[in-house]
Amino acid sequence: MKFSLFMSSPAGRVLRVVAGAALVVIGILLQSVLGIVIAVVGGAVLLAGAFDVCLIAPLLRLPFTGKQIRARAASAGV
Q1: Which pLDDT tens digit goes with each residue over 16-60?
Q2: CB atoms within 10 A of CB 66
Q3: CA 25 to CA 66: how far, in whole Å?
Q4: Could you count the other beta carbons within 10 Å of the beta carbon of residue 24?
Q5: Radius of gyration of the CA atoms of the chain, in A
Q6: Distance CA 66, CA 75 (A)
Q7: CA 74, CA 72: separation in Å to the nearest integer?
Q8: Above 80 in pLDDT, residue 1?
């Protein structure tokens, strides 16, 4: 829960956007099939941070959006 709470915080969102942008740039610079895959993954990470969603939260049995994660943590007293 603490991991998903951090990732839904403003600092976590900035981290995801920056990491996603870095992956996109690295993927483009590689100019290969692997580079395209890295760029696509980076784009997904970037967009997840920008739109305040957590792509792995459902695997952790948590809500999909950051707003819902923060609300659940507040109600649980975390």
Answers
A1: 999 999 999 999 999 999 999 999 999 999 999 999 998 888 888
A2: 23
A3: 26
A4: 20
A5: 14
A6: 14
A7: 5
A8: no
